[in-house]
Amino acid sequence: MFNFKKLKILSHDESESTSSFVFIRNNKSGSLEFILPKGFDKFPKDDFYSIKILFFRMYQTFKQFEETNIAKSTKNNNQNHDKRQINVNGNGYIFKDKDDNDVILYSKISTIENMLKAFSDLSLDVLEKSIGKSSIIDYRKIETYLNKAIYLENDAFYVDELDENINVIHYKSSSLINLFCFIIKELFFELGMPIDSRVRELADYFSKNHLSPDHSLFDEFTFEATTNILKNILHEINQNTSYKDWNYWKIFDAVENFLYGGLNNNAIHEDGLFWGASNFSAIWEDMCNTYAFKNYEVWFADTQITYSGTKMGNYQIDNHNIIYKHEKINEYPFFIGFRKKFRFLRPDFVQIINRHDNDIFNSAIKIEIKRKYGNGMINFDVQLVDPEFRELYSRFCHELSYKSHNTSKNQKQPSRSIIKKDTVSFSNYFPRTLSLCKKSLQTRSNIQQKTTPDLARIIDWKYMSASDFTNNNQKVKIDVIKQMCYEFCLSKLKIQGSDKSIDKIESIFVIPTFCTPDSHGEHQELIELHSGIPDIMRDNSIKLYALDFFSAQKAYLENA
Question: Which of 99, 113, 186, 492 allows an S-S link to 217, with CB 3.0 to 4.6 Å?
Fold first, then answer.
């Protein structure tokens, strides 16, 4: 295995690569560099554990993308939905994204793949195949036993017993199995995979007999020491094992490759790539779409992702392009017609926001719990997110301030303070008081009676850095024009059961970012950016947001 400390960590802007390649490749000097995703300018490059976590999360992400697309391609080809094939390029796969651009994915790392393959083929039952002595002789096959016979002086011979493959009960697994299970346990832990109880038992047994409690394969300080101990034990096992069947060699080869192999092997490809994706945009879009399906009310999405076991593509346009369309929508609105000819458009994602029930407190007015006390009381901030709802916001804060509270002599009195514009801080409140005020606002404002969406948000997932948004970026200009077309088309849409159009439509671009958690381990997932916005976006009221990379990745790995 390889030591993460020896990888050269580079942001995308620091890399020699001009493409959107992400992760490990050979540079011109022949050393391996770990290229971070776009938006990772604040990533702690010197932090071993942050690098390790990112590596294993990306390994899972690439495998998920590989498996999903291979399964999708096989199904589509069988059903004649899409004739495009997934081609094999050396150790990589060539996919087509939705815009017919090539995505070359190198997802396999032999040191890990061989261990996982060996584990999937291995049975860890206590009933194991072993060599034993047998006195049962089949005389019909006597000619096959002559090499095992004992010859007398008169040239007569006899066969007493034979070495046969028999099933015997082992109360302790072999040393090689124990070593193998220790590595598997360490690997599964880093990958966030469930660990079989039998694997854990054998791994702990190995660790107890050969290692100290702080030894680990993926620890910054004990990596080399642990690896050296395992190498010595593997050599000892191989020297002292007399009979070696195919199961032995399968496990031995996997362990040996893991301990002695690394990233400097013959798996490096012609373009210098060792592991990663040549075009990360397609993976980023799948991550974002999965995150959006988890958190938003979706009306349209240009995606074929599988979410929680269900393929989201349910509507077909342009002969083969399958998108998601909400059941409340009768017609697909995104097209331009001229002289009976149509050009269909496909926005990445359309989110609908209905300001009713609890939605108003998700999109217009945000409540953030800052502290919880042992007596059940809380401190919280109330922030105005949408200025159009300032009146409701003021009413809500006013009611919180003057609502009667059940306090005792030993409890602090509720209080409020304005901490900054459009944010009010409340202290020493019971959660029930907050809940009652929320319900009161919703009832008196009668906002739950609306049938037509207040806001449609057209989202374009952008695998770009914030620095890419400049006044002279032609791609940004083209994308702005596309957003204006989407808005125009959506403005004509009539909602099922209503003759009204959507009240308000806005467009946003969403780019990746690395967010540093606060002292409580929490961070804001979606952040609006205000600086560095090009004039063409400001003039057309298109906002720029940054989505926390790990939040999107977590949704993708858990729900894809």
Answer: 186
DSSP string, 463-511: ---GGG--TT-HHHHHHHHHHHHHHHHHHT---TT--PPPSEEEEEEEE
Nearest partner of 192 among 64, 281, 106, 294, judged by Cα:
64
| Lookup: tokens for 282 | 């397609």
Query: Taking a C-beta distance cutoff of 8 angstroms, is the pair 480, 536 a contact?
Result: yes
Contact 89, 104 (CB under 8 A): yes
Q: What is the average per-residue pLDDT within 516-542?
A: 83
Taking the C-alpha atoms of residue 199 and residue 187, their distance in angstroms, rounded to an integer, is: 12
Helices (H), 211-245: 223-240
pLDDT tens, 112-145? 888 888 888 765 543 244 444 455 566 666 666 6
Residue whose tokens read 């697994």: 173
DSSP secondary structure letters along 386-426: -GGGHHHHHHHHHHHHHS-----TTSPPPEEEEEETTEEEE
Residue 407: left if φ>0, alpha if ψ -120 to 50, beta else—which one? beta
Range 360-449: architecture per CATH = 2-Layer Sandwich (3.30)
Q: In whole numbers, what is the pLDDT of the chain averaged over residues?
A: 79
- pLDDT number for residue 99: 64
Residues of the chain with CATH 3.30.780: 360-449
Dist CA 328 CA 502 (whole Å): 13
Specify the pTM. Answer: 0.71
Q: Is 207 within 8 Å of 179 (Cβ atoms)?
A: no
| Separation of alpha carbons 425 and 437, rounded Å | 15
